[in-house]
Design a protein that fits this description.
The structure is a homodimer of 527-residue chains.
Chain A (H helix, E strand, L loop, with lengths): L6 H23 L8 H19 L12 H19 L2 H6 L1 H26 L10 H10 L6 H4 L8 H27 L7 H36 L6 H21 L4 H19 L2 H29 L3 H8 L2 H32 L10 H10 L5 H11 L8 H32 L7 H6 L12 H4 L16 H9 L4 H18 L13 H5 L1
């Protein structure tokens, strides 16, 4: 068809969609393999395609699209984070809230300080171009953004709920913290830090956190209220699903517009939507949204890894570095070392502190669990790449030599950590948390990026769809019973439940308070 | 967040998403209204927003995004057409295949000839800028692209299956025909038409149709084969859904790449996917894809109408026209008149011909039904606008006076036909096809763009999801029984069924041949 303003874009979209499809198929075929996972498959396919393009274009280019932050932050990240909030086990998440904030926010700050100071001290000895204090602090933020997807694919949510929710929750808070830090660094003049500037910085940081959360909660509640009041599903499921998708995206874009942390906003919007809105829609909308959000998140993730793999071979960046391979290797090694140290310096002391406040022995983190948490945060992923591009390039191109080295080193660290650490994750966790946590069925069932429940659960089949917290909490199984005895009666949670039941649910719907649509298929099943 | 390369794009995306949400809510509230429908609501909201933007920018601009064909043809159109193929009642569609092709292809050609010759003759008397023969032929193609969504929202698929499938199928074939025509016109040098060039043109046209269809069928079968062979759903529903979405989109982009008719390709890909692939996936994937595709199509449609409404007030285009409002009004009236005449000249003779070949009286089109078909094709929509922009602007801007008049006239015709004809559709059809076709429940239930079944059907509730052709064909109700007696035993269809059952289904899956996944929720329900 002649209606293409831009033949190149049709070419590249076609190739990209074909590669995404092949990633899914190959990822599925390699599923039984104990080393591989979907991220590594996508990275590998991206690298191979990059090599082929490099040969066919005779070394001119290795990628079909220039790494575009807008694409990443406006289209690919929102579905991933929203789905994370939507599928999170809310009870677990809020029960371990303090620990998640401890690891996610305080841990990221520790790692940030160590990487920043470490690079400042160590890079002086290497012959790299000029970097100012803002660049060093940015490096701290860039290399504090972890990518725990890889570990989550191996951990089993049902067998180690505490570990899973800490690693998962920490990952989200960590993303938000490092991006908020990064933005604060770009905004503030940090060449002369005074106590008052520091206080302003911290105030800004807190303001970000609170307003972003409130915005997400607000938009989520509005969506619940509209859908409950209007009984949309009575006439059209599509309208409900469309409204949920649009409102979720709206929360993200509004946060962007108001210069808030859009990641936190859309995450909390996802939590609120799964707690209220999801219960107000029809049966089929529930199944649809649950799987559609997971699918969108899944496609976005593969997209990012494919992209990073393809971009890694971009010839332009490596040219500036090729004259001094030693320096570049040194920078990458230093960064990798600082990542390992920074992560250790946050996980082990924080685990020690959190263990102090726990009464029951069984609830404390064992050394093996601490090592698992440490390992889960070693991988660096797409957020690091996106932040590095933002700091060290101008519209995808690198001019200064120092900046070029930073970009190539970031890619090296991301590739190395994802591939090498990623490949070791399955065997390592099998070694650390044996048998109980990695039975063969459990591992194959939890290969989804965010698998809230195993596929074969019956509730989905007879229409009583899987609520992230519903159903199974009614039957106290050994683990949750033990946890219930171990943790002190949580008074905050008790009052929240009371408030939720008496004020929130009657207003915004939710389990047990969803509108009864006469003659609808949900009626006989839910009531 | 500071990570936005382009503040303007964040602004406009936020506003656009907010407007889309409000369209859904307002559209829902106006549902009971006998005049309004979702398209008109979106157009009206777009117009209002345009006015507000016009005032706030002090007359500089009325839209937040420049009309972008790439956006339209690469992102918005594919989900709409794919969903049309995916949700079509295949039996009805193929039973009336000859009639659909007759109305869709031959009818469009008649309308094309009439509009082209009519404009050539009538525009000479008006003082408009220079237009060459290519422009006149393009106008023929532009104003032959109908938009029957409006009528489909009012017709009931179950009560007038023949009428519905003819109007629906014709709409899809018409879209494809007019776009293929338009492209052929742009490609061929039509300043001196010889018989050999005409033959080449026709050959090209046929080649387009056949190869495009085959590509769509091929990609659809590959997706069915992969999903059947790999039993993907065993481990992850998300992977199945992702693969279906990606393969569908891949078929569209491949057709674009090979310069075929991507609309036909993705339409047939949708048909094949719903006939084979859809039966090979798990229960929850089936519900998810069914609703997710419908939702995407729904959002795309509202997006387009909102866009057209907003773009209609673009000040730049009207400036060139404002000096001679009479000429512009004349052009619009002529075009509107030619649309009415061209449609009449195709529908009534073709209905007469098709009635000649029908044995049973009850199967012939009555005059009232003919008027309904005529009316259904009077609306002009987003395809017309996109084609007009392609022919008469260069990257969204209009330089020549003649071109500016063509753009504004196109918008006038689209707005007038959608709003005025659209508002009259419900009352008119209520008048022409009374009681039986527009009972109050039926109308409120079929307000979806492509509602395959009413919401309250029980099969969806107990997991046996609604297959577009399955289930209800087993219980011969009066209408289908009458049709069965009326139409002669279709031998082609008989042999196809035999071939389908013995060769195709065992290979590609499909109803009754889907893989049995042990322990999966589909097993006890389907077998």
């Amino acid at each position: 068809m002649a209606l293409k303003p831009n033949q190149a874009s049709v070419d590249s979209i076609t190739l990209f969609v074909a590669l995404l499809s092949s990633c899914i198929v190959i990822g599925h075929l390699l599923e039984k393999n104990r080393w591989f996972n979907e991220s590594i498959t996508a990275l590998a396919i991206g690298l191979c395609t990059g090599i082929i393009i490099l040969f066919t274009t005779e070394g001119r280019s290795s990628h079909i699209l220039v790494f575009d932050e807008e694409l990443f932050f406006i289209y690919l990240l929102p579905p991933i984070i929203f789905n994370a909030g939507f599928q999170v086990k809310k009870k677990q998440f809020f029960r371990n809230f303090v620990m998640i904030i401890l690891f996610g926010a305080v841990g990221t700050l520790i790692s940030f300080v160590i990487v920043s100071i470490g690079t400042m001290q160590l890079f002086k000895k290497l012959d790299i171009g000029f970097l100012d204090i803002g660049d060093y602090l940015a490096l701290g933020a860039i290399f504090s953004a972890t990518d725990s997807v890889c570990t989550l694919q191996v951990l089993n949510q049902d067998e180690t709920p505490l570990l899973y929710s800490v690693v998962f929750g920490e990952g989200v808070v960590n993303d938000a913290t490092s991006i908020v830090l990064f933005n604060a660094i770009q905004k503030f003049d940090l060449s002369h830090i005074t106590p008052s500037i520091f206080m302003e910085f911290m105030g800004n940081f807190l303001y970000f956190f609170i307003t972003s959360t409130l915005l997400g909660v607000g938009v989520g509640l509005i969506s619940a209220y509209i859908i409950k009041k209007l009984y949309m599903g009575r006439h059209s499921t599509d309208r409900e699903v469309a409204l949920m998708i649009l409102m979720a995206y709206l929360s993200y874009m509004m946060a962007e517009l108001f210069s808030l942390s859009s990641i936190l906003t859309v995450f909390f919007c996802g939590i609120v939507m799964s707690h209220y809105t999801w219960h107000n829609v029809t049966e089929s909308s529930r199944i649809t949204t649950k799987h559609a959000f997971a699918t969108l998140s899944f496609i976005s993730e593969i997209f990012i890894f494919l992209y990073v793999g393809m971009d890694a071979l971009d010839i332009e960046k490596w040219k500036a570095v090729s004259k001094s391979p030693g320096t570049s290797a040194g920078v990458s090694s230093i960064l990798l070392g600082l990542v390992l140290v920074g992560r250790a310096a946050s996980v082990f002391p924080l685990s020690f502190i959190s263990n102090l406040f726990k009464r029951s022995e069984s609830d404390k983190f064992t050394l093996k669990q601490q090592v698992t948490i440490w390992w889960a945060g070693l991988m660096r992923g797409s957020v690091s790449v996106a932040l590095a591009y933002n700091q060290f390039t101008r519209s995808g191109h690198t001019q200064l030599r120092g900046n070029a080295i930073m970009i190539t080193s970031t890619i090296t660290v991301v590739l190395f950590s994802t591939v090498v650490f990623g490949l070791l994750t399955k065997p390592l966790i099998r070694l650390l948390l044996p048998s109980k946590n990695l039975s063969s069925t459990a591992s194959s069932e939890s290969l989804d990026p965010f698998p809230p429940k195993p596929m074969t659960d019956l509730p989905l089949a007879n229409g009583q769809t899987a609520d992230a917290e519903g159903g199974r909490d009614n039957i106290p199984r050994p683990t949750s019973l033990r946890m219930l005895l171990a943790t002190p009666a949580n008074t905050v949670h008790y009052y929240w439940r009371k408030f939720d039941d008496s004020v929130m649910r009657p207003m915004f719907g939710g389990r047990g308070f969803a509108p009864i649509v006469p003659g609808s298929p949900t009626e006989p099943l839910l009531h």
